[in-house]
Amino acid sequence: MLKVASCCVALAIVVVAEATTVVLTTSRDATLIQDPNGEFALGAAYNIYAGRVGENSGGTLRRGLLYFNTAPIPVGSVVTSVQLSLNLSATQSGTFTVGLHRALLSWGEGTSFAFGGGGAAPSVGDATWTYRYFPSDPWPTPGGSYATTASATKSIGAVGWYTWGSTPQLVADVQSWVDQPSINLGWAVIGNEVTLQAVKRFDARESGPNTQPQLIVIYTPTPSNPADINGDGVVGAGDLTILLSAWGTAHAASDIDNDGVVSASDLTRLFASWAS
């Protein structure tokens, strides 16, 4: 749809961009495993865990980490909706709240693998309870670094898919990552850390395409300018050269006003957007 605004003889055309939906999966995911006697990790495991385990497992804590690469969303886009879907593949009894907390420091995913939530010996680069990147870069405080206030919460009970609905803070998180990719550190997945056997097991990216985490983002791309004929991001001499060479023809790219012929009205519109 085109909106045309006029002032004296100057005319400008604004193209209203359509909303776009993209579904992303994690580029990295991991679990921080609390253990007083050593380091354990789940960098390459099929699952991530959040919450407190049972007494037989020591009653210790698990915290998940998720990282989504937002590069497919063009810089300058306006994010309008963010939803996160995770598949709960195993659970202890009870329904508990699980929150998504913006991570405050970077972290790694190594090759450590185990089928259960007890973890395995960490490999180089793994995130552990003590280290952001094992074995050289520790967390300032063991257990990870994340915002105290959740960006979104969800009550998690029986096995199945769960979706954290869009919230202003989830949108703000992803918008900031689109605007400044270097500050994208992902989210920590924090469950009930008080109640024994409250731990929840979600499928990680390694579980396969049917069950891996999904981040659903709706955004509006930066509107394009039809006077930018050569698509270099600036209306200038290159666009003028193309328009003049197509004068009097039906050249689609140069027919800025879409009236079927390249003419003076197209030239006027091009000059109205000059250097924009």
Please supply descriptive tags for the structure shown above.
two-stranded antiparallel sheet, 276 residues, 11% helix, disordered N terminus, 15 strands, Type 1 dockerin domain, eleven-stranded antiparallel sheet, single chain, mainly beta, 32% strand, Jelly Rolls
State the share of residues found in helices, binned by percent.
Answer: 10-25%
Radius of gyration equals: 25 Å
- Poorly predicted residue ranges: 1-15
Beta content: 25-35%
Helical stretch tally: 3
The CATH topology of the largest domain is what? Jelly Rolls
Spatial gap, N to C terminus: 20 Å
Description:
- 38% of the residues are buried.
- This protein folds into two domains: 2-16 and 223-272, Dockerin domain (Type 1 dockerin domain, Orthogonal Bundle); 20-220, Jelly Rolls (Sandwich).
- The protein is built from three helices and 15 strands.
- The chain is mainly β and 276 residues long.
- Strands 3, 4, 5, 6, 7, 8, 11, 12, 13, 14 and 15 form an eleven-stranded antiparallel sheet that branches. Strands 1-2 form a two-stranded antiparallel sheet. It has a two-stranded antiparallel ribbon with strand order 9-10.
- Helix content is 11%, strand content 32%.
- A hairpin with a 3-residue loop joins β9 (131-133) and β10 (137-138).
